[in-house]
Structures are given as structure tokens and as C-alpha cells.
Amino acid sequence: MENRLYRQLHNDLSRVRRFIREQDLVSLGPEDRRDLEQAAAGLEDRLQAAEDQLLCAGFLGGTGVGKSSLMNALAGAEVAGTSHRRPHTHQVLVYRHVQAQLPPFVEQSPAPWREYVHQADAVASMLLCDLPDFDSLRTENREAVLQFMSHLDLVVWVASPEKYADRSLHEVLGQASKAAGNFYFVLNKVDRLWDRARAEESLEQMQRMGEHFRSQVAATLARKNAGTTGESPLLFMVSAVEEPPYSVWNQLGMFRESLFTRRSAKQTAAIKAANLEQEMRGMCQPLHAERAALEQGAALIRRLRIEVDNEAAAWDRDGANILESWVHNRLEPVLAQQGPGLKPLFGPARMVGAALREWRRQGECRQDGSLQVDQEEELRRLYPRIENLGNKLLTTVLRTEQAENVRPVVDEILNADRMWDRVNSGWQGVIHNALSWRRPIRGLGLTFSQGAVYGVLTMCLLLGLGGRQAWLRLFEQPGPGAGLEVLFGILESLFSPMGLAALFSFALLMLGAGIRFYRSHEQRRKDWARIRGEQVCAELCRVWNDELEETNRRLEEAQSSLDDKLQALETILNSGR
To answer: Of 201, 248, 256, 241, whose CA–CA distance to 65 is shortest?
Structure first.
């Protein structure tokens, strides 16, 4: 096809079908998508077949308006004879020139039809279709006739002075999917208004009736085209029974010249393309509704993202308060036990530690490092905070008109249980890593201090028990004899009252030193647990805040998806036609 409009229509239909297949539409259900896909496929098939230069014209009117006589008068021969009566009132009568090919759409039409072949050369390039009288059409047959009409290039609406204001004519006109520029309106049998004796009054009456008919048609077309008035309807006042030369008031010659003058291929293509364009506009009405739904959905999600951003400070504060309390009360005592135990201690300090732990064992249960986040009641206090966020955002959704199209997407993103599961999973990983970390607590200084203190106390005890004179002789004259003298002196003094008192004092001092070293060791472990707890708390807060950012990210993805669909749809609906 060389016609530019044909190429544009083909490209638009391809984009429509691709959009329907590839995009998840928010306002159209599966059945609506299927119907739209079928309509686009059917229109594309008709676009491919539009190269046929046979112009198809349909004549539509009420009972007794003279459609057959009008077609005969226009053709200059009897193509629609009186014997061509419909066996059924809902049949379409098709008049084809003997050398013309019957278009495929006629044979495929669901409307019942009957064909008649003629030899009137004046209408050899046109297919004349006498459509059923619309005032005798049953409701169940009207759709089939309207579908047949959608394949016609031209439609001639025939009325008479008695029936031009018939409501059924305007009902069918409002339902016809055809370019208004390819409609012809004929007021037939106006000879009944002519009175030679009252010529001037007769002409005025014809003019008033024609203007009234034209205004009614224009109003119907304006309603059909959503208020767009367009060009004035083509209206002809004729009498099909008058023989040439025609009276001045009979516009039959003008109508014949306008309708049946041989058209060039370019003119025929323009007529067919204009009709297909009009039908495509009607087919795309659901896509206009989809565009409105996408615009409203994208605007709604933008508002939700703003609300999420406004919640960030309160979200962070609430999470930090509860997490810090839980870490201090529950996690730090467990972390304090994740060290070397009593290994850095020895002597009295280790004995004190062992005794105290044995004494506390009945009152305290050692944590085994298997904290389960979902079983921690204090942490579950944050679940209502997630629910509160979802309820707040869903309230915004419910207050927005036409929000039901994006409600499933928002519900999926703001599902409190899924959000809580993700937070729990992240927290559990952080806590598992914290409890699995075995960084040793350095105890070299503690070990050296214990050895020094214990050694000094022991040396003082030995010096006191051995006596001053014995030790001086050992230092002045070192030897076995002096050493034995010191040893016997110690043994002699050990069981004396003074020696027992010294031994008791030594034990108290050693116990005091052991307690001091044990407490120092415990404080070091608690300090380490506190520092480690602060680190873990920061990681838990990060997981908590990441969930809000994840929610915002998902909303952003949903908005981006809607924006992409909207952009693709705008390209289709705003294509230059």
C-alpha cells in the first residue's frame, strides 16, 4: 500500500497488538484483552484487504422510504427489481456488477445476505448493499447488521418526510462505526411536498424540513463523536420517481454525481482508510480508559512514595528504641558468655570464678546462642509498626478514586506478613553471625598481673615464716645448709600461733586478689559485650530501615512500570494521524 494513512494504520495496529500481548493492563480483564486483541486482528485483516478498489456502498432506511427506487434512479437502470424481495426482513440484499468480484467480507458476514447480479455499467465499480429496514430489525439481528456495515466504505441514510425524525434512525446512526465524512443523508419522496400552485410555500417547507433533518443528524453525530461537531452532514433532497430533467428542487442529479462519479484509486483508498481510522478510534476506546487508569495509578504511587519518605524518621526512631532495649536486655548477656570463659584466670581467681558460677547455676540458665527472633516478644512489638504503615498507605489508596486498578499491586508491596518475614530473616542472620563470632578477649595483662600479685603475696608469707636471721644468712652465705635452715624455720613457724595467723592472712589476701581479678575479667567481658552489642544493634537497625527503603524501591518499580506502560500507550494513542 502506497497510501501513507494505510502505513500509519498498519503501524498503529501492530503497536496495539504488541502492547496488548506484552503488557499487564490494569483496567482490562482477560476477556476484555481477548476481545480487544480479536478486534485489532480483524481490523488488521481488513486493512490488508483494503487494496480492493471496489467501493462498497450501503443503503439504510426505514420501511417504505424508497431505497430500491433510489438505487435504480441513481444507476439509471433497474438493478433492484420489484421481484427482489427479502424472504426475511433481516437479510442484506447485495447488488454486484457481473464483472466485479464479491468481497470476502460478504461471504464471511454473520448477517444473512442474498446476492443479485446486474449489468448496469454506471455502477460497475461499486457494490450496492440494501440493508434491512432498521425499524423492523430485531435486537438480536442489529449487531450482525452493524458488523456488516463496518465493512462498507459509504453509507447512504435514506429517510422520507414521514420518517426523517424516526428515533430508530438516530439510534442506529449513533452506533455506526464509520467516518462521518463517508455518510450521505437523503430525504426521499420530497415530491409529496411539492405543489405547483403554491411553489414558493412548498420550497420553504422543503427547506425547513431539510434544515431540521440536518440539525438532528448533526446533533446525533456530535453525541457519537463526544461533542465534536465536525463538518456539516451531506444532505440531499430528492425524488427517485421523477424522470429527467429534474425539477429545481430535486437534487438527485447532484447526489448521483457526488456518489457514483468514477473515483480514482487514491480517492477510494482515502475513503477506505478514513473508515478504518474511525473504526480504530472506536476500538481504542478501552485503551483511553487504560491510559486514564495508568495516569491515576502512577500519581497514586507517587503520593505513596512521598508518604513513605515522610515516615522514615518515625520508622527509624521506633525501631532504634525497641532494638536498643532488646539488645541490652537479651543479647548482651548472651554475648558476654561468647568468650574464653575462665581460661585467662588461674589460681584463686579461677577458683572464685568456678565457685561463683556453680553457685549461680541454679538461678541462671546459660544461653546457648540459639536466640529465635520470631519468638522474641519485645521484637514483635515492631510488627504493629509495619501494620500501621500498611494501613496508613492503604487508607490513601481507598480515598483515591479509580484506585482499584492498582490496589492489587499496592497490597502485594505492603503485605505486613511478608515484610515482617523479610525483617525477621535479616535479623536472624545478623544475630547468628554475632553469636558465632569467637573473637578472643586479650588477657596477657591480666595474666601478668595475677602472677605478679600472687608471687608477691607468697614471697611475703615465706619471708615472714622463715625469720629475718635465717634469710640474711641465706643471702650472705648461700648454700645447702643455709637453705635447710630457712626451710626448717618456715616449717617450725608454720604451725605456731603466729604462723597460723600469717597463713590465714595470706589466704584472705589471695582470696581478695582472686575476687578482684575475677571481677576485672567479668567487667572486661561485659564491656566487650556492650561494644559488640552496639555494633549488632546498628546492623539490626540497618535491616529495619532497609525494609522501609525496600518498600519504597518496590513502589518506585511499580511507578516506573506504570510510567513505561503509559509512555508506550501514549505513543499509540497520540500517533500522528
So the answer is: 241
- Degrees to nearest 5, angle at CA 566 with 562 and 571: 155
pLDDT tens string 481-496: 777 877 777 777 777 8
Asked if residue 406 and residue 305 are part of one domain, the reply reads yes
Count the domains in the chain.
Answer: 2
Same domain, 247 and 308: no
| Cis check: omega of the bond before 132, within 30 degrees of 0 | no
Q: 251 and 297: one domain?
A: no
Determine the 3-state secondary structure of 84 from DSSP: coil
Domain that includes residue 460, residue range: 290-573
Closest C-alpha to 194, from 216, 161, 217, 163: 161
Residue 374 maps to a domain: yes
The residue out of 263, 278, 305 marking a domain boundary is: 263
Percent of the chain with pLDDT over 70: 82
Please tell me whether the overall predicted TM-score, pTM, comes out greater than 0.70 for this model. no
Q: How far is CA 167 from the centre of its chain?
A: 44
Closest CA to 216 of 161, 169, 251: 169
Q: Are strands 183-187 and 154-159 parallel, antiparallel or unpaired?
A: parallel
The grid coordinates listed for 37 are: 486483541
* Backbone dihedral angles phi then psi of residue 414, each to the nearest 5 degrees: -95, 20
> Is the same domain home to 499 and 386?
yes
Distance in angstroms (rounded) separating the CA atoms of residues 176 and 173: 5
β-bridge pairing 126-130 and 113-118 = unpaired
| Mean pLDDT estimate for the chain | 81
Same domain membership, residue 438 and residue 324: yes
Q: What pLDDT digit, counting tens, does each position of 329-368 carry?
A: 888 888 777 666 677 788 888 888 788 777 766 555 444 4
Question: What's the pLDDT at 40?
Answer: 73
Characterize the bridge pairing of strands 154-159 and 55-61: parallel
- For residue 353, the number of C-alpha atoms closer than 13 Å in the C-beta half-sphere is 21
Q: Which H or E run contains 60?
A: strand 55-61
Ranges of residues in the chain whose predicted pLDDT is under 70 = 1-7, 9-10, 22-29, 43-53, 82-89, 136-141, 178-179, 226-230, 260-280, 338-341, 360-375, 402-403, 437-443, 575-577
